[in-house]
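dumping the sequnces here before i forget
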Amino acid sequence: MISATDISKRYGAVQALQGVSLDLRPGEVVALVGDNGAGKSTLVKVIAGAVSPDSGGLVIDDRPVHVGTPHDAQRLGISTVYQDLALCENLDVVANLFLGSERRRLSILSHIRMERSARDLLTSLDVRIRDIRVPVAMLSGGQRQSVAIARALIGEPRLVILDEPTAALGVEQTAQVLDLIRRLRERGLAVLLISHNLADVRAVSDRVVVLRLGRNAGEFRTADASQESIVAAITGAAA
Amino acid sequence: MTNAATTVRKPYTPKEAVERLRHGDLGAWPVVGGLIAIAIVFGSLNEHFLSPENLTNLALQMAATGTISLGIIMVLLLGEIDLSAGSVSGLCAVVMAILSERMHWNPLLAILTALVAGALVGLLHGLMFTRIRMPSFVVTLAGLIGWQGLLLYLLGSGGIINLPFDGFVAKLSDTWLPSWLAWTVTAALVTVYAASGLIGRRLRIAADLPVTATWWPVAKVGGLAIVLAGSVLVMSADRGVPLLLVIFGGLVVVLDLVLRHTAFGRWMYAVGGNVEAARRAGIGVTRIRVLAFVLSSVLAAFGGILAASRLSAVNQGSGGSDILLMAIAAAVIGGTSLFGGRGRTYAALLGILVIQSITNGMYLLSVDSSVRYMVTAAVLALAVAIDSLARRGSTT
Ligand SMILES: Nc1ncnc2c1ncn2[C@@H]1O[C@H](COP(=O)(O)OP(=O)(O)OP(=O)(O)O)[C@@H](O)[C@H]1O
Ligand SMILES: [Mg+2]
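..and the predicted 3d for all of it:
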């Protein structure tokens, strides 16, 4: 289990996070919701090592760990898919999947080994791309998002963080990506999903964690919670 | 060869083919078409244009500017520009000439030192670009002016250094491969190309990866054999294959292999395609950028030395005039994108071939250089238009 405990972060006059805690378990999709400026992205950046908190920290399997840089987080098995896709459109799918962690022998790229693993990975995720050697520029938005998510799995992580993965997608492509998220859960990964779309959240998550003005403002089992109670927690109407 | 278990990459449907065209996946075909058009036009206007002697001259004329163009491609791939390549080529040629002629160094050592000087110049450009974050345009514009100044200073009042005709450097451009050697090299190249294709195909099939239909690699090997054999045949009918062409061709091939088959090359393309993505993937963007500028200047230096060899001299005009512009134009005409991340080293070869053919053909027709400039400009504009349209296609 990966937990963020009692995280606080202040940006100048803005208290972005105030004593926020979050538990992430293997094989569970947790949706992080909240209004604009609630602190979702800040929390994600803390977990991903992109921002260091003023207090609080990460605990992995009951042991406190230090995450100072994104690299530390990756080493601990935390992989993040940012909102802007961070793919190289001029490179093909294989190259993008292995970008920065190319398989090579004597500094020569192992094209075949990488293409083979890329194909196996995409097949296991049921991502359908006709030719994985075409530049990413030629793929649809949903396919690109799928590649970006698949890319997060290359380092065999235990937690995958997705920041607004369906924000720019149409209905059908959103369904594709939600399916992909379910498959991550089936693989036994912990998934943290940030979304403004409650329909998506209800469709795919097991648990919903609500942030409001930088604090924990409620936690629901998705199956038991009504849309109204979640919305109330987001807006603070319940208080 | 047809194995039931083999997955064959299906040919593209017409719709997908159009899609690929719209995304600028034209490869080298527009340039090859242009070259054929040039050959037909000039060949019919002047019977001397396609003669072995003239084509061999053409091969000889390409090497120096082509090598500089290779360096330009290294920075264009990152979406940057190197305006200093001409001046650096002249400067390093002068360094080489001073060391070998005025100070009587061993010519090889002089060449090596000049290349190191080029590397230092590139390092300086790269550091100014990455550390001080000056735009590459400005850094290398300063270089264009400054290194030209240093060249004039080093040459001093003499203004010219002649290289002895029988010296090592001058000999570089007056060495011709004997016919048996040219044919051996050709056969070796075709064999290696075919063998590597065959092995790659076997490995792909063994890994259960899709392969193209059999006729495609066969056609590629055949095409290479025909082009190489044709070139050797033509040039052997004159003085033989010039060593200079072999050097330039070797650089093109080696750099292409490095760009496509090493992590360094992959990262060059990644940085050119999306810097932010490259950075997040843990790629040392700064190091790649500095290395690209170093490569650019070293190749410029080497091109300058080849030019000095052709001229058997260095003078105040070394690396000046339109060399830089032709080198950039060649890279772009050959299909290197100005927006970064797209292009191969063969662009230098094809692009310089186009430019030199036009220059050479117009010269044979005794057309004024004013017309030559305008025609070259039109070709360049066309190449950039194709690039821009391709880019628009890929972002919508
Ligand atoms: N780098 C920063 N510098 C200063 N203030 C910041 C910075 N990053 C975030 N903030 C502030 O912290 C608060 C929380 O921001 P955060 O981006 O985490 O919210 P969010 O929940 O992700 O919002 P959204 O739904 O709009 O993405 C906001 O008030 C924001 O203005
Ligand atoms: Mg946010």
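Residues 161 and 314 of chain B are 5 Å apart (CA to CA).
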